[in-house]
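Progress note, sequence design subtask.
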């Protein structure tokens, strides 16, 4: 069987690893490297630390992603710093989960949290226990509405749930999907697997986690990787498929499209569109500000919630490099880089209680970082009404936001669908209802 994968992001890589050695496989990637929206950009900071297209944070619950790394010989613990979840900001709010079995870690963390009254802690504990973060898809509302209805209007809403929603869904709580946020909370806070809520911070370049080692691994298994080759069109040809690139047309038995949702329409243009839901169109941005402080500048804990006008998360990359990530649409989008950097630098000075000069910095803006994860958003299915054509990518799984985990999970599933070996087992964690 001759299969083509279009797109070499984490979904395309996951599909390729699953199919390698089983079929004749070609991977087409328009860019210069594999990795897509999660890759190193080939630039370093002034201390020589490699920079990525955006600061990425993984979770202990990223089962598929971590499994994929292990499968190709990358030891997650060598490349990722594992930390127990701790959220704190300049207001004095602090919630830290201890290393205890689930659910004791949650309740211990909640009752030990600072800057929250006992009444709010008690109400929240009862809500978490009785509701288990379940929002049925047919009753989907915004996260803000869901929290309000649950009586979560206090400190935890502003300092925990809303920032977590923005970090996980890259969509502000006022219009993010409560159903998807509930699924994320169940897979982390509601997951009894040890370390599911842990934060995993890349120790070095993001491409070193998967894209670069995967390229070598796939090469060694005879997978043809065609970089800098954009597919312009896709056409049915009998029961096979023709792909058209600048180098001409080629025919394959099966195709897996793993491109971002906004790159799908031109590829599907020659198929009757009424036959399946359109991919999500609205996107949310992310900006990452990398600041090169003197090497002795370090955060007491490597992750910090910024409590300034633009919010955001601050990650200590070591060696004086601090990365601030601003997610979702907001006022920050209209600011020029200099103004944005000065504002975030002021927040950082408040965090480290030091008065510092603005250091060398770089701002990387991804205008279409992820799809906008709104209530009731229809998703493009992984199987289409035509045999031999499959779709994967971070936008395809209805219960998931756009993350590395949803990308790798969908990539794996598309490969199994393609081979006819899909059992549905990797669609949900054991704890998901
Ligand atoms: C700045 C930023 C920060 C993020 N932070 C986090 C985080 O902390 N944690 C987390 O889990 N997730 C995070 N994400 C989300 C995560 O990076 C994405 O969900 C994931 O990388 C998407 O992978 P994908 O393979 O589905 O899509 P993509 O990465 O978009 O891959 C699609 C690939 O297809 C290629 N392509 C497109 N059209 C064609 C064509 N016609 N022919 C050939 N190739 C084509 C593209 O070049 C691309 O390489 C972040 C994303 C960004 C941008």
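Output:
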């Amino acid at each position: 069987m001759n299969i083509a994968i279009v797109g070499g992001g984490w979904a395309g890589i996951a599909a390729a690893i699953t199919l390698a050695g089983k079929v004749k496989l070609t991977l087409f990637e328009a860019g210069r490297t594999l990795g897509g929206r999660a890759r190193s950009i080939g630039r370093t900071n002034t201390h020589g630390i490699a920079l990525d297209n955006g600061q990425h944070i993984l979770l202990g619950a990223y089962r598929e992603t971590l499994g994929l790394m292990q499968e190709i010989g990358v030891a997650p613990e060598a490349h990722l710093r594992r930390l127990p979840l701790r959220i704190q900001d300049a207001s004095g709010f602090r919630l830290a989960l201890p290393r205890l079995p689930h659910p004791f870690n949650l309740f211990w963390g909640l009752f030990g949290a600072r800057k929250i009254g006992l009444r709010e802690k008690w109400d929240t504990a009862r809500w978490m226990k009785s509701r288990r973060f379940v929002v049925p898809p047919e009753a989907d509302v915004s996260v803000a509405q869901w929290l309000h209805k649950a009586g979560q209007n206090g400190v935890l809403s502003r300092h925990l749930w809303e920032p977590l929603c923005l970090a996980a869904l890259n969509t502000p709580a006022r219009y993010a999907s409560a159903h998807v946020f509930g699924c994320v909370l169940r897979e982390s806070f509601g997951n009894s697997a040890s370390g599911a809520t842990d934060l995993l911070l890349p120790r070095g370049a993001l491409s070193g986690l998967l894209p670069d080692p995967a390229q070598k691994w796939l090469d060694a298994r005879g997978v043809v990787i065609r970089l800098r080759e954009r597919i312009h069109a896709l056409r049915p040809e009998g029961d096979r498929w023709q792909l058209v690139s600048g180098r001409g047309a080629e025919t394959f038995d099966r195709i897996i499209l793993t491109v971002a949702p906004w790159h799908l329409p031109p590829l599907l243009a020659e198929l009757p569109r009424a036959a399946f839901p359109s991919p999500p169109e609205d996107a949310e941005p992310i900006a990452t500000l990398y600041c090169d402080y003197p090497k002795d500048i370090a955060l007491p804990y490597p992750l910090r919630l910024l409590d300034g006008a633009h919010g955001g998360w601050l990650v200590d990359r070591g060696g004086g490099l601090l990365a601030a990530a601003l997610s979702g649409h907001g006022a920050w989008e209209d600011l020029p880089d200099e103004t944005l950097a000065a504002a975030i630098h002021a927040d950082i000075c408040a965090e480290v209680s030091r008065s510092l000069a603005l250091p060398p910095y770089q701002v990387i803006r991804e205008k279409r970082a992820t799809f906008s994860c709104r209530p009731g958003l229809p998703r493009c299915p992984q199987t289409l009404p035509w045999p031999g054509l499959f779709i994967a990518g971070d936008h395809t799984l209805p219960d998931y936001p756009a993350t590395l985990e949803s990308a790798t999970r969908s990539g794996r599933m598309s490969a199994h669908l393609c081979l006819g070996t899909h059992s549905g087992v990797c669609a949900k964690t054991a704890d998901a209802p």
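The chain has three domains: 2-43+57-74+204-281+376-419, 85-197, 283-371. Work on this subtask will continue into the next period as scheduled.
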